[in-house]
Amino acid sequence: MRKMLLAALSRVLQGPAAAAAARPGAVSEVSRVVVASRNYADFASEATFDIKKCDLHRLEEGPPVTAVLTREEGLHYYRTMQTIRRMELKSDQLYKQKIIRGFCHLYDGQEACCVGLEAAINPTDHLITAYRAHGYAYTRGTAVREILAELTGRKGGCAKGKGGSMHMYAHNFYGGNGIVGAQVPLGAGIALACKYFGKDEICLTLYGDGAANQGQIFETYNMAALWKLPCIFICENNRYGMGTSVERAAASTDYYKRGDYIPGIRVDGMDILCVREATKFAAEHCRSGKGPMLMELQTYRYHGHSMSDPGISYRTREEIQEVRSKSDPITLLKDRMVNNSLSSVEELKEIDVEVRKEIEEAAQFATTDPEPPLEELGNHIYKNEPPFEVRGPSQWIKYKSVG
Amino acid sequence: MAAAAGALRRLVRCGPQQGLGRRLQLRSGIHGSAPAAVQVTVRDALNQALDEELERDERVFLLGEEVAQYDGAYKISRGLWKKYGDKRIIDTPISEMGFTGIAVGAAMAGLRPICEFMTFNFSMQAIDQVINSAGKTLYMSAGMVPVPVVFRGPNGASAGVGAQHSQCFAAWYGHCPGLKVVSPWSSEDAKGLLKASVRDDNPVVMLENELMYGVPFEMSEEVQSKDFLVPIGKAKIERQGTHVTLVSHSRSVGHCLEAAAVLVKEGVECEVINLRTIRPMDVESIEASVVKTNHLITVEGGWPQFGVGAEICARIMEGPAFNYLDAPAVRLTGADVPMPYAKILEENCLPQVKDIIFAVKKVLNI
To answer: Do residue B140 and residue A379 have CB atoms under 8 angstroms apart?
Structure first.
């Protein structure tokens, strides 16, 4: 009886929150509404958890081995990770229907990384990553509908349909980069700007286990360390660079040590609290002027490298299933919250329902929004330039270009 | 007497080639002799431009190999590190791909970097960052992420530096939408274009020429001003003419003017156009000139295939000027070989004044 009453109460209180959740950046508002309702005694306000100790490189001390999770935070992380999970699965669906074209690199399985990182930094900090970027586009403030509409190539996409899957940008989020490893020097350059402007901001520069063998990354390690740039180098090690396992690609698979003179930590990337605490630790290091740090997040992608890769020719279905059943980041958080009275199965189910609805609505938008007008073809060649003409496929076809 | 001695000293110091260039400048009458005009080398003009732009905008900084404590491999940044310090003038390790990416990232985050390549041959190592990161990002982000970075350094042939150090990249970078590409010849060009490039909110590739660094040009008082800019995308008519249009960029402009000075004795008046900008190219100026002269010759140091001259010819074919051509357009280019070392071979791998004169006579059938 009590449970039913509480469930009803929870639904009533989350009513306005569901509407709020449809707007970008509104997740925190949802949490605020929830906070107001948490006065009933069944839920704890916070709980402390043991988290895995990080392996350390050139560090005497590492991040803490316990983490405090408030109910508010937990619900926020859960909702965010679930949103990304469902968004990626919807993208899979749309790709198979041929509504999304070209490259599509999905992030499901790795949600704890992008949500954990964001939880540890400020919106005024900067982040850049490679092409498996949909999760980051969301955590950095892009609405789901704008992400999906970018994937379907519509004018309502976050880059007006001109970028596609690998080229989504937001405030203090520099993509979405297609060339493996190229984003790493860019990230150090952003960190240089942070230091130059003196505003205590840092840059999180992400790359994968495949990219970790790129020469330009070592050039960047050198300059970042030399000039003490406030840059956290983050290797998202999901064990496979396309179809090549880490053992077959790297003479040393201790990616957190590959920065040599740069201190590094190896983090359980499936545990959002581990990611959050490690990032706080690294951010503090950078902000204090000590120079760069390297984090290796051990994570896993359920999908293949991209939608054209079934992902089972170089790994077994058993392996994928094992990770799903034992290490799924959303399940891990859910179990923690339910077992420690931070939430209930019903409450989290409610969130699932709301998220599904949000994704459906976003997909509806993404499949009905019109494609960009042809005039858009010539735009954004130059910034702050008087309008000029851009050549089309022949001398008689011209487009006007405005920045 | 003292004035003559002074003139002689200047000629001797500059060397015969450069002195000739200077005399041509004065003779051409384009600049004239304004009361406060001074002789400034291309090197000093670039140095002034850097100094002025660093002073004007705190977000501007210079990075590259040897730019700071060495005063610049070619002394272009002489004195700047002493004046502005480590924050604004940054010596990099020999890591082109890395530091070019760093420059581009810094531009994305709101700074205005000038990224020096010791020569553009080394930019090949970093070309992905120039084209894919700098050139395309504004478009891919639908206008959200501008990249106000300048890539500059010596381009093309030098003297005896061999094949790997002599390539011209005008066609390579000029090929790519999203970039602007400029190529100065004179000191006025160098100063005005560098300043304009730094103030431009887009990625600009500035192709200088090492052999021009030591060449002095007259700079009027107007050009000396701190706000003098050369507009990007506009060619300059260096010499008016009626019989044939010579279009060129960078060092070859000087050769065209020399050829014009010889040809004028035979009654041939060449119109010499200094492109100044490779992309966006000022085709209109070339067309207007060809409509007037009915003959076109392009002159460049780069290789012939898919080059600047090839582009100009194609565009002339597509436009109104085609109907005014009395002969097919002609291209003078670098020889279609990697640059050899031996002096006699190297000399014959670039269009010389005699080649221009020969081509003019061929085209005019005289």
So the answer is: no
